Amino acid sequence: MTTPTPENEVLPVGSEDDVVRVRQAVRRHAITLGFSLVDQTKLVTAASELARNVLIHGLGGQVRLEPLPVPISGARPGLRPGLRMVFEDQGPGIPDLDRALQDGFTTGNGLGLGLSGSRRLMNEFSVESRPGETRITVVKWKA
Amino acid sequence: MERIPILKLGDCLIISLQIDLHDRLALAMQDDLANMVVKTGARGVLIDISGLDMVDSFIGRILGNVATLCRVLDAETVIVGMQPAVAITLVELGVTWDNVRTALNVERGMAFLRLHLDASQAMQTAPEENHDDADAGE
């Protein structure tokens, strides 16, 4: 017996308005999963950073939001609800990942905190990038 | 295109961000505010962000820019009403606002601007020996 798994959601990222829609969808999922207000804000902020990267550096792409199954309490102790967010684009890729993950490094017109900052806001953070395919996967677990 | 209204109150401008800002709108706000400061000769600018449930690094940069921009135009800026969750996230994100004045709410923000404007006015009219006194309030 398990709690019904909330639906995954895929959203396009092709415009600034899409970035706003991604923020709203992430907020909705975070509320449904019972995240605290601070963690909701961290999730939404990280989503905004990463979705903007998809738009600006990846020339558009998509975001997949995957609410992680909520186990019955006690059945699998240690497992908590969480939200996984996968940002994908077919852009040129991140040539120097180590540098891209440094605070203050930017090729765009931001503060250079998009990748490094959102990594701090999440519990898990992984990047796969090559020319034509970049995928950033992040997870935040409910506290 | 949608615009964020800017209110004039004496020698101050007041702007309240109440909707989810997309990047274009944030940039338009920066331009409009700079133009309004020049047009009205405003000496103080208060930006209320109590309606924002998120400030990411882009919006953070715009707000920082606005404060620097206004200072260059001889107007003092204060950002008020930041929600606690936004403040916590902003710090963890790594946004540092070196030149941005903040106040807890509109009331305290206006009080700061009044104090600052009175002090700078006193400095302009006061005799030489009083300059240090006027600065001490900073």
From TrEMBL, chain A:
Name of the protein: Anti-sigma regulatory factor
Entries under InterPro entries matching the protein: HATPase_C_sf, HATPase_dom
Residues annotated as domain Histidine kinase/HSP90-like ATPase: 38-142
Alphabetized Pfam families for the sequence: HATPase_c
UniProt feature coiled coil, ranges: none
Alphabetical UniProt keywords: Plasmid
Transmembrane recorded as keyword: no
TM segment ranges: none
SUPFAM superfamilies given in the database record: ATPase domain of HSP90 chaperone/DNA topoisomerase II/histidine kinase
From TrEMBL, chain B:
One Pfam entry name: STAS
STAS domain span: 2-126
UniProt-listed InterPro entries: Bact_StressResp_Reg (IPR051932), STAS_dom (IPR002645), STAS_dom_sf (IPR036513)
Keyword Nucleotidyltransferase: no
Keywords assigned: Plasmid
Origin: domain of life: Bacteria
PROSITE patterns for this protein: STAS
Coiled coil: none
PANTHER family: RSBT ANTAGONIST PROTEIN RSBS, RSBT ANTAGONIST PROTEIN RSBS-RELATED
Protein name: STAS domain-containing protein
Lineage of the organism: Bacteria, Thermotogati, Deinococcota, Deinococci, Deinococcales
